[in-house]
């Protein structure tokens, strides 16, 4: 799920709710910046942030760059 046009007050409320439910989403702030609030394992957060910075990337590229074993 991607939330767009989120202001700072909404972001804080959403983050609290997500953490209580052990969930995470991608939020696109009004200035276009994307953030990942909520609860997510560090390795998943790192991987998702990497993908967001790159824009478009294949699973093979993620595996090679992040040194992740592909088991699927």
Distance between the termini: 23 Å
Largest sheet: 3 strands, mixed
Strand content is: 15-25%
Count of folded domains = 2
Instruction: Flag low-confidence runs.
Output: none
Report a brief summary of the structure.
The protein is an alpha+beta fold and 72 residues long.
Characterize the structure shown.
This protein folds into two domains: 1-40, no CATH class; 41-72, no CATH class. 4% of the residues are buried. Helices cover 49% and strands 15% of the residues. Strand 1 (2-6), helix 1 (8-21) and strand 2 form a beta-alpha-beta unit. Strands 1-2-3 form a three-stranded mixed sheet. The mean pLDDT is 81. It is built from three helices and three strands; from the N terminus they run βαββαα. The protein is flat, with a radius of gyration of 14 Å. It has 72 residues and is α+β, with helices and mostly antiparallel strands.
């Amino acid at each position: 799920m991607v939330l767009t046009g989120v202001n700072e007050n909404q972001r804080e409320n959403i983050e609290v709710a997500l953490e209580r439910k052990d969930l995470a989403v991608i939020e696109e702030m009004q200035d276009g910046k994307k953030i990942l609030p909520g609860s997510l394992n560090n390795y998943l957060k790192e991987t998702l942030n990497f993908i967001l910075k790159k824009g478009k990337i294949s699973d093979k590229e993620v595996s090679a760059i992040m040194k992740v074993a592909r088991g699927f």
